[in-house]
Amino acid sequence: MAFYVIGDEQGDWTVLSVSGELDLVTSPVLRQRVHDVVADGRHSLVLDLSEVFFCDSSGVGVLIASRRLIRSCQGSLRLILPAQGAEDGSHVNRVLGALGVRRLFDVYADVEDAVTEQAGPLSA
Fold it and tell me: What residues pair up with 106 in beta bridges, in sequence order?
């Protein structure tokens, strides 16, 4: 399956919609896209991972590195990890939970909630 990262602007937020497998081969693509967004001066970032059906440790590493980069710029990083998704929910959500790093991220059910300041993140 192909791996895609598609960018969009929604108000003050940059939304990167990711689909496919986030693994050793594809994670450098996402890492570069996040760096490009920050280099362009955009420090409010939403990563929509609702279409990611597999994530390995290198993918998790990119998410943690992205969090660190955005925080160093006093920015905000929000993840879209819907409870309902493929057949049994978000694979990335389960991986982050199993590794104990899910609590590091502000997680939202959809992009609309993530870019709306009144909406709060989902509990870990």
Answer: 78
